[in-house]
Amino acid sequence: MGAKIKKGDLVQVITGSKESKGKQGKVLKVFPEENRVLVEGINRVTKHVKAGQTQRGTQTGGIEQVEAPIHVSNVALVDPETKKPTRVGFRLETVEKDGVTKTVRIRYSKATGKDI
């Protein structure tokens, strides 16, 4: 995956169901091992939770709507300037901090060339 999409990024669904396609949402969690991301408000599924009790005695359980992970190839990062999906590139820059030179990878939008 190369960390093109990170937690907190705004992404747009580019393929998938009619309900999800074109929607934008914030990445809640990234699963790099499975190449999947959890996006807020996208790919909502119904989950049946077994009834139980909390320590205060209130009832828990029932039917809940939760987000399910979506494959990373089905989403595109949204450019903060244009608010449209864009491809991500990496650029190496040398930064000097406290007399130490480091090489850092910086993500940039291939459409505008600006840093993300």
TrEMBL record:
Residues 42-116 form the Large ribosomal subunit protein uL24 C-terminal domain. GO terms for cellular component: ribosome. InterPro entries: KOW, Rib_uL2_dom2, Ribosomal_uL24, Ribosomal_uL24_C, Ribosomal_uL24_KOW, Translation_prot_SH3-like_sf. Keywords: Ribonucleoprotein, Ribosomal protein, RNA-binding, rRNA-binding. Residues 7-40 form the KOW domain. It comes from the Bacteria. It holds the Pfam family KOW. Belongs to the universal ribosomal protein uL24 family. Part of the 50S ribosomal subunit. NCBIfam families: rplX_bact. One of two assembly initiator proteins, it binds directly to the 5'-end of the 23S rRNA, where it nucleates assembly of the 50S subunit. One of the proteins that surrounds the polypeptide exit tunnel on the outside of the subunit. This is Large ribosomal subunit protein uL24.
